[in-house]
Fold this protein.
Amino acid sequence: MPPDLPAGRLVPVASCTLRLDPAPHPLEAIAGAEIDANWQIEKAARPRLHDGRVALFSQLGWDGAALAGTCHIVRYATFLYWRSGGRREMARHLYAHAVLAAADGALVAVRMGGHTLNGGRIYFAAGSLEPVDFPHGLADLDANMRREVEEETGLDLAQMRAEPALHALALETGTVLFRRYVSSLTAAELCARIAAHVAAETEPEIDGAVVIDRPEVELPGLAPQMPAIVAWHFSHPPA
C-alpha cells in the first residue's frame, strides 16, 4: 500500500479506487465492548442518533497521482468510537464533498441541524459512505454526493455541471475527496430552494444554507476542511 496522503495539503487525484472488503473491520473485532460503551455515551448526548451502517477504511494510500483504499461496513457506533479517539491508528475515515458553486461565483454550503452529530458545523452537504455507495464492490463517489446533497438540500446535482477534476485533502479528522459542481442558478436562488426544502421536511438534517462569497472567510462553526477548499475555489474559478 502506498504512503498516506500528505497531511493538510490539497492535491489533485488522477484516479481513485476504493474497494469494499466484506470481512469485518479489524477494529470491530477487537474493540466491541469499548465501542458499545462509547455508543451509550454518544446516544445519551444525542438521543436521535441512529446506529446505522457506514464505511470505515482499514487501508488508504496515495502514490502521488492515484488514491487506493480498502474499507469495511461498520456500525455507526464504531465510527463514533474511532472519531472520539479510540484506536485511531487502526482506521481511516474518507468522505466526499460536492463543492456547490453558484452562477455568480459564490459557494453554497449548509449549517447542520443541532440534533445531528455535527450540529452547528458549516460544510458542503455530505455524509459518510454507506453500503449503497458500493455497486460491484467499488465506491461510487458521485452517487454518494448526489444522494447526500438531495437528502439535505433538495437540490439535484444532475442539473449542474460536474467538473472532471477530483481533489483530496487529508486532515486528522478524515480525508475529503471533492468535486466542484457548477449551477446555472445564483446563490440567492439556490438558497431559496434549500430553504423551501428545509421548511417542507419533518426532521431536516440542516438548519439552512450558508453563502461564502470570498476566499478568506471566518464563520463560527466552519469545519476544518473548508478553508482550504474555499481558497482553492476562488483561486481556481470555474471555466
Notes: The helical segments are 26-30, 32-45, 76-83, 141-153, 187-200, 226-235. The CA atoms of residues 133 and 143 lie 7 Å apart.
